[in-house]
């Protein structure tokens, strides 16, 4: 199967690395033939001379351009193959208006962990996507991580919880590392300690059967250090601050 990528920036390039490791052929078309050729050489794939050449040659098309230019890109294109879009905030209805009302359309929301082939990706399709096509689409998204099939109405929430949240996790890591520096550790050492702890804590949760609350309880000895820290974090509104950040992320996603 030949997969064509229109736009080969950060996210598409990460995805292409995963896809080309599987039995798919990849062809790309970026801003113009020169940038397409340069990206194709960098990624070890073939470049098309134009978006239309790509649309004619590929069996499955993936749009990797910014949401703001989707309309311009699709306006000059005749597409009769299944189309997948990764653009934040661009609905299936909008894509249908910009293409053809009978076209099978798939929307995904990957995250930057695609760079290490560990994206948490949401997927949904319009009424023209058969079960078999959805299976093929998930085979593609599974090449760069884990796929969650969700109704489109939940995409904005997913965008906050998986698309943007890596930035909030990095902020959490950075804040803990700063605390380490405050108490005399050097920054590099503090970052290594925290990153390793976050990684192992996630694995412990993922691999085990305990809930986060069970694990919190087992760390919190009566009268101990952890419960003192936890209560102080809540006094400063830790949970409320995080939920408020998610509220703001979802509100912004709805505006796009
Ligand atoms: N980055 C993320 O974490 C993330 C997460 C989820 C979803 N997404 C979605 O992924 C898409 C791409 O985001 P990105 O971060 O990868 O952006 P990006 O790095 O800017 O990639 C966009 C690519 O499209 C190229 N381009 C510009 N005009 C074009 C045209 N007319 N035809 C074809 N290609 C064109 C750009 O070239 P130039 O650089 O020369 O302009 C660039 O190579 C967006 O829709 C975004 O919403 C991104």
TrEMBL record:
Cell location: Cytoplasm
Broad EC category: oxidoreductase
Pathway: Amino-acid biosynthesis; L-proline biosynthesis; L-proline from L-glutamate 5-semialdehyde: step 1/1
Record Gene3D superfamilies: NAD(P)-binding Rossmann-like Domain, ProC C-terminal domain-like
EC number per UniProt: 1.5.1.2
Residues given in the record as NADP(+) binding sites: 6-11
Main location as per UniProt: cytoplasm
Gene Ontology terms: biological process: L-proline biosynthetic process
Transmembrane intervals: none
GO cellular component, one term: cytoplasm
A GO molecular-function descriptor: pyrroline-5-carboxylate reductase activity
Highest taxon in the source lineage: Bacteria
UniProt family annotation: Belongs to the pyrroline-5-carboxylate reductase family.
The protein's name in its UniProt record: Pyrroline-5-carboxylate reductase
Provenance organism: Streptococcus chenjunshii
Gene name of the encoded protein: proC
